[in-house]
Amino acid sequence: MVWLIAFLCGAIVMVLEIAGGARILTPHFGSGAITWASVISVFLAGLSIGYFLGGTIADKFPTPNGLGILLILAALSIGIISPMEQWLFPEETVIGVGGVPMPVENPFERIAGRYGVLIAATILFAIPSILLGTVSPYLIRLSSKSVETAGRTAGSIYAISTIGSIVGTLGCAFLLLPNWGVKTVLMQTTVATLFASILCFAMKPISRLKRSGKVNPILLLMVASLLLSLALAQVVYRRDSLYHRIIVEEFRGVRYLKFDNSYQSAMDLRDPDRAVFVYTDYLHLCMLFKPDAKKVLFIGLGGATAQKKFHKDYHQMLIHTAEIDPAVKEVAEKFFDFREDERMKVFIEDGRVYLRKTKERYDIIILDAYFGSRYEVTLPFHLVTREFWWLAQSRLTDDGVVVFNLVGRLEGYGSQVTRSILRTMLTVFHELYIFPVEYRQMPWLYDRRNLIVIAPRKTMKLSRQELVKRAEQMLKEGKIKIAKLPEYAADLYLRQIPMQDVPILTDDYAPVEFLNP
Predict the structure, then answer these.
(1) CATH 3.40.50.150 location in the chain
(2) pLDDT at residue number 377
(3) Residue in 35, 39, 32, 19 with CA at minimum distance from that of residue 169
(4) Within 10 Å of residue 268's Cβ, how many Cβ atoms?
């Protein structure tokens, strides 16, 4: 009985830690090093306090019932994590430009700033980790029969607890999160903790029941409850994968794909060819630089809006996509009418890993891969370093181009990350063409917006007038289908961008979480 309680509690701790870092806080603060450092630190601090308190309480109340009460409190503290998350981060939206729903900023994040993730992790996980930390020293006190065997008893309990932690870590990553939502996982964890508390209360009765051959009905009830919670767990239009909290929702006839709380793709159900998010039409500017493109690689699938349009408009084009998350492909097929065929293939692979492994050479490489967070999309750092850009350039044809959907600011407060990425790209490419989406309609760059960055492998030195003329000519000849592409070409950004105050990003040093205030 003692070993089972130690195993369960060790597993529960790690399920909470993995779920907390990978799914509960990531939508609100991103998946960077700060998030994981905060979660791990809170759990380590909580366990340390719990070890001390558990030993102290066990010396004063050395009965299984005392531990059972602590575990009931732990179960209650786990059970309120979801309501607390909703209280800290209410899911509110308003209608933005173009009828797109936009999240309302939470005052908590504005006040807390960079340390908000640490504060949030403390609020959500400190008490559960402290209470679960009391288990091991309490079990050692209950199991120790003499001073001579205390060391072996302590070692055995910690070993079993650690094995449970390993099972909990792997089980959460490979079984629970891929198959159930976070709220369901928390419910299951709460039930498992209550089950451990019942084991504590039943320790003495079980020793007597072994002789009588009877079964404890309370234990059967708890096991049945746990199995029932697993059986009833379902997700509709919502899925937690290894990489994202994927949400598909419909609003005023438009179907949206969200990663966590960030909008990634959209499809007008009445007019599927219409670009709900205008930036996807701006991606066609790459054809002005490589009109005879035959082979294109997208890094990032999303709802496949851009891929489907390229497939329809350019019949000569072979379209490959590297997408790290197989669940994203399934959602694109089920909800966004995406289909693979001879000209359109998806490879389930991290974009950088795919580029490293492939022997293909592409005329165009389009980078549009983001993780979601509550208010901003987050770039995977390994897709913006100098080493990545060297790799991408090496996979281009001699006159190929890289196209980058960069969400950021070019000017003013909070533009450091964007300018650092551009500076890094210029260490590999000789020139960059930057097209802020709808720049002439809204000629201010102090707020985040889509910036379409085009980096040719060979220097081209094209002017704004030349690009507009090319767009008009290709539109007239029917080589492109985007009627407003000449207008988009006229959005070319011509101002000098200061870069001396921002670092070049490398695999060794890429502090993307720290560059912006």
Answers:
(1) 245-515
(2) 53
(3) 19
(4) 14
How far apart CA 153 and CA 145 sit, in angstroms, is 9
Query: Which alpha helices (DSSP H) does 213-348 contain, by range?
Result: 217-232, 279-282, 286-289, 305-313, 326-335
Angle at 175 between CA 174 and CA 178, to 5 degrees: 80
CATH of domain 2-234: 1.20.1250
3-state secondary structure of 248: strand
CA distances from 194 to 15, 39, 222, 337 (A): 15, 24, 8, 44
Residue 296 Cα distances to 52, 118, 367, angstroms: 59, 42, 11
* SS3 at position 262: strand
Query: From CA 276, how far away is CA 376, in angstroms rounded?
Result: 19
The rounded distance, in Å, linking the Cα atoms of 248 and 256 is 6
Side chain identity, residue 286: C
Q: Is 237 left (phi over 0), alpha (psi -120 to 50) or beta?
A: left
Residues of the chain with CATH 1.20.1250: 2-234
**Distance between CA atoms of residues 346 and 326, nearest Å:** 10
How many other CB atoms are found less than 10 A from the CB of residue 253?
11
Q: What is the 3-state secondary structure (H, E, C) of 377-442?
A: CECCHHHCCHHHHHHHHHCEEEEEEEEEEEEECCCCCCCHHHHHHHHHHCCCCCCCEEEECCCCCC
Domain 245-515 belongs in CATH node 3.90.105.10: no
Identity of the amino acid at 84: M
* Residues in the chain, pLDDT under 70: 27-28, 30-31, 91-114, 145-148, 204-237, 261, 371-378, 443-447, 513-514, 516-517
170-189 pLDDT, tens digit per residue, is 998 888 877 777 888 899 99
CB 489 within 8 A of CB 469: no
Under a CB-based contact definition with an 8 Å cutoff, are residues 372 and 262 in contact?
yes
Q: Which two tokens stand for residue 65?
A: 């019932």
Q: What is the 3-state secondary structure (H, E, C) of 304-323?
A: CHHHHHHHHHCCCCEEEEEE
215: left (phi over 0), alpha (psi -120 to 50) or beta: beta
CA–CA separation, 4 and 15 (whole Å):
16
Which of 52, 3, 44 lies closest to 21, judged by CA? 44
Sheet strands side by side (includes 254-259): 238-240, 245-251, 254-259, 262-268
